[in-house]
Amino acid sequence: MVTIRWDIKTIDRLSMVEDVLKEFSCCDINIISMKVTPGRILIKSWCRQLQDISCVQSCLGRRADIINVAYLCEEISELSTPEPERPRYFSDIICSSQSMHSLIEKAIKIADSKYTVLIRGDTGTGKELLARAIHNSGQRRFYPFIPVNCSALPESLMESEFFGYEKGAFSGADCKGKKGLFEMADKGTLFLDEFGEMSLSLQAKLLRVLQDGGIRRVGGAQIIPVNVRIIVATNANLEEMVEQRLLRADLYYRINVLSLTIPPLRERPQDISLLIRHFVQKYAKEFQRRIILDKACFDALHHHTWPGNVRELENTIIRLMLMAESDVITREELGMVNLPAVELTPTERPFKEQVLCAERQLIEQMVEENVSSRHIAKALGVSHTTVLNKIRSYQLESVS
Predict the structure, then answer these.
(1) Does any domain span residue 275?
(2) Please, which of 76, 177, 303, 330 could form a disulfide with 167 given CB 3.0 to 4.6 Å?
(3) Is the pTM of this model over 0.70?
(4) What mean pLDDT comes out for the span 217-242?
């Protein structure tokens, strides 16, 4: 006997239900009797293929190929839940965590400012994506956004690349001269990625540009005024670099006017499920395949620590979808994309990192539950000022 919830009324219920059951069970079914009750259909059926125990076991084994309906319902519910509205230029930043929403709110506030922005974050967290969103949502969006990877430029070419050169400035120079990156970004934004890789000599010249608002080409004498907003990104500890004299202190204070920190993916697990769904949809459309992840695979991806952050997650989804042999990707297929099976457990991490991570998660959870900062201080056994400082450093919005 089979019970099916049914909300569709049709004259030919019998053949419709028979077709549905054949498709679902992968075998021929003849319906002996069917009773329709409000919202349900009770069916007594005979399956020609289930004539001995081996056939029964074979059909039961096919259950592994049937997608978990409850899981799909959860997926549909998640996909149909509207995300909080954000300005369209920030819509490419996929997130639901409080820390990221607070970060975006701050980025929106400073978008029209002329001052330098310092974006901190681990590799792969999306620093350039945030920088582009800031540029595109401000008044400079009608002018160029020029991204520069400071670590990819040879030191011998850095000065001519940034400031340009006059004709005949050096052997092999273009006879017409060349504009540098600052001139190319005039009235727009110059995004300096991997800022910590910049040489001390170039740091001094960059400081001069920030102070005077003008550049001088290599081999030239004229000061060329430029109106450029600088956005700097780094995963380095700039304070340590200042102490080690690898970064000029005066330049550090110049660039650290407006600071934004993107938290690593491991500190915002609620964003991982959104990102997985986003990338699966994006690349299913690109590859023209109807592919989904089964629940075990989805859970394994969700609980991975992602040391490479969003970039690693996106690349993993791409590899999975390119190598998938069927339309349903299982957990077993994770081995094909070299996703480590063994994760770094909390007890294997440095004690200080464990404490800081646990503290941040606790404070973020209490802030999301609208617990006041004074109650958080009381719960943690610390001063109210300490809690306020931590909330600011985590870029959270709290109830005072």
Answers:
(1) yes
(2) 177
(3) no
(4) 92
